[in-house]
């Protein structure tokens, strides 16, 4: 059998029940990785479906429930992941939430909810795995941020600020851990056709406006995003760290 780049490697991916996270999980499994797929316990049925699909395709997958915004839940997630696989090679922080409000309508609790999952969740899961990566002398951290973290749109100040936090967090961490063989990069999707993407642009007129702003003239699909995550996880990206790559069909050019 031809060797695959994920053979004998384990990836932990958060927020895998649907959308981009599910597509990343299926792609990594197809590349030979043992996938430990996380989501909230209320997503149990969808997560079971992901595990079944990966196994039906000949891959390996186990699932762990955890809320990435909750420190105790994240500690349990990482310790249970390390029981499933004594070595974890790659972490993909994908779990995320979005809501749309102009600033004067963002309730303080809603600001916290968005930051708790998107920014604090990325921090918590990453922090919990850092000692493990350092001990291995290698680790790949891939954070799913957003073009919103670079530019953003009205109605999304809280979401875009949380994604800007992910990008800057990744850049600083990349410098702190580089000498331990750990790379940290962000993927910045544009508008992707998932539950989140559709909720953001609920009617045909707003969807068309986004397509018109996109050089390639369409929404992205989850499958459009997975290659960037797989690349950052691979040895092909060994000399790349602290970067934030747009996967947006040409909505942004910087
Ligand atoms: P989605 O809403 O379809 O999926 C998000 C997943 O995260 C779900 O499975 C959900 O259950 C899980 N999740 C939410 N809160 C969680 C928590 N506290 N703990 C664990 N899991 C949790 O969203 P989509 O579109 O697949 O987004 C994935 C990532 O990509 C997110 O970080 C999102 O911000 C980012 N993104 C999405 C874009 C889009 O247009 N769809 C554009 C740019 C970035």
Automatic annotation (TrEMBL):
For this protein, the record's Pfam families field holds:
adh_short_C2 (PF13561)
Per the database record, which ranges form the Ketoreductase domain?
9-194
Q: Which residues cross the membrane?
A: none
Spell out the PROSITE patterns in the cross-references.
ADH_SHORT
State the SUPFAM superfamilies in the record: NAD(P)-binding Rossmann-fold domains
CDD domains in UniProt = SDR_c
Give the UniProt record's GO annotations in the biological process aspect.
Answer: monocarboxylic acid metabolic process
Which SMART domains does this one have?
Answer: PKS_KR (SM00822)
Taking the record's annotation, the residue ranges forming a coiled coil are none
Q: Which family does it belong to?
A: Belongs to the short-chain dehydrogenases/reductases (SDR) family.
UniProt cross-references to NCBIfam families, sorted A to Z: PRK07231.1, PRK12826.1-2
Q: What is this protein called?
A: 3-oxoacyl-ACP reductase
Organism of origin is: Rhodobium orientis
């Amino acid at each position: 059998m031809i060797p695959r780049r994920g053979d004998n490697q384990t990836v932990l991916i958060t927020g895998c029940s649907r959308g981009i996270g599910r597509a990343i999980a299926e792609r990594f499994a197809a590349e030979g990785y043992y996938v430990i797929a996380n989501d909230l316990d209320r997503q149990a049925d969808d997560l079971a479906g992901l595990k079944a699909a990966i196994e039906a395709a000949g891959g390996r997958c186990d699932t762990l429930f955890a809320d990435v915004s909750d420190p105790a839940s994240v500690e349990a997630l990482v310790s249970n992941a390390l029981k499933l696989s004594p070595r974890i090679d790659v972490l993909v922080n994908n779990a995320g939430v979005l809501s749309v409000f102009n600033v004067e309508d963002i309730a303080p609790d809603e600001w916290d909810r968005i930051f708790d999952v998107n920014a604090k969740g990325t921090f918590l899961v990453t922090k919990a795995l850092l000692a493990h990566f350092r001990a291995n002398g290698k680790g790949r951290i891939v954070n799913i941020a957003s073009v919103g973290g670079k530019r953003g749109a009205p109605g999304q100040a809280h979401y875009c600020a949380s994604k800007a936090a992910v990008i800057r967090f990744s850049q600083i961490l990349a410098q702190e851990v580089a000498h331990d063989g750990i790379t940290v990069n962000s993927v910045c999707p544009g508008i992707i056709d998932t539950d989140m993407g559709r909720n953001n642009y609920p009617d045909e007129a707003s969807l068309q406006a986004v397509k018109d702003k996109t050089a390639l003239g369409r929404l992205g699909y989850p499958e459009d995003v997975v290659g960037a995550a797989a690349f950052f996880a691979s040895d092909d990206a060994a000399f790349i760290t602290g970067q934030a790559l747009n996967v947006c069909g040409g909505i942004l050019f910087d």
